[in-house]
Write a structure and sequence with these properties.
The chain is 49% helix and 21% strand. By secondary structure, the chain is an alpha+beta fold. It has a single domain, classed as Endonuclease, Chain A (3-Layer(aba) Sandwich), CATH 3.40.960. Helix 1 packs parallel to helix 4.
């Protein structure tokens, strides 16, 4: 069953759409579901709570989970709910520029 996006995932998703980026919310890559995917840029975006950055067990779990993306040429960008709450538009603009660069660099 697909989980409902958090407020912060939805905020960033909407901001990326506003920037003209083709994004998928709650994308399943066959092993895990990532918060946001930009498929043409081969970029996953995870919007996480503070425990993903302060809890050693959670950090180890995330590292192991991220390892499953190693073979598919996708990069993962991690940000926090707190950053999205205070800097959503700025982050979306920066990510949009990065996505455009990644698409151009792969010849897309």
């Amino acid at each position: 069953m697909k989980k409902q996006p958090t407020k912060y995932e939805q905020m960033l998703f909407n901001a990326l759409i506003k920037e003209g980026i083709d994004v998928v919310l709650g994308y399943n890559d066959g092993y895990k579901t990532v918060d946001i995917a930009v498929l043409d840029a081969k970029l996953y975006i995870e919007v996480d709570g503070l425990q993903h950055f302060t809890n050693p067990k959670q950090i180890l779990s995330d590292l192991q989970r991220g390892h499953f993306s190693d073979g598919d040429d996708f990069r993962t960008f991690y940000t926090t709910n707190q950053l999205i709450e205070t800097h959503c538009e700025e982050i979306a603009r920066a990510l949009a520029d990065v996505c455009r660069t990644l698409v151009v660099s792969k010849g897309g």
